[in-house]
Amino acid sequence: MEETTGLVKHVLMAKFKDEITQDQIDQLIKGYANLVTLIEPMKSFHWGKDVSVENLHLGFTHVFESTFESLEGVAEYISHPAHVEFANEFLTALDKVLVIDYRPTTVNL
């Protein structure tokens, strides 16, 4: 197996609180996506809602994935004032959250 050098994926799984409206969720997602324009080490952002038929989501409903060129880039992102301000708002809207950072690994067959 071949671990990617440098590249890091930052994955956040979330369940919004019941009282958070769809309009509020939409605005939070736009704010999250906008971080790409504000924080240089953040290279891309994707998100989606759970569509699994396996019902193993453990209550998580949304997935957010950001790509960074390095672990140092993730650290810079986490401490960046724009991220800190956004995270303070975003996290208060969540009932559950799980964050994992990983280096993509290719399996050579």
TrEMBL record:
Organism taxonomic ancestry: Eukaryota, Viridiplantae, Streptophyta, Embryophyta, Tracheophyta
Stretches assigned to the Stress-response A/B barrel domain: 8-102
Species of origin: Coptis chinensis
Name under which the protein is recorded: Stress-response A/B barrel domain-containing protein
InterPro entries the UniProt entry points to: Dabb, Dimeric_a/b-barrel, HS1/DABB1-like
A Pfam family hit: Dabb
Subunit structure and binding partners: Homodimer.
BP GO annotations: pollen tube adhesion
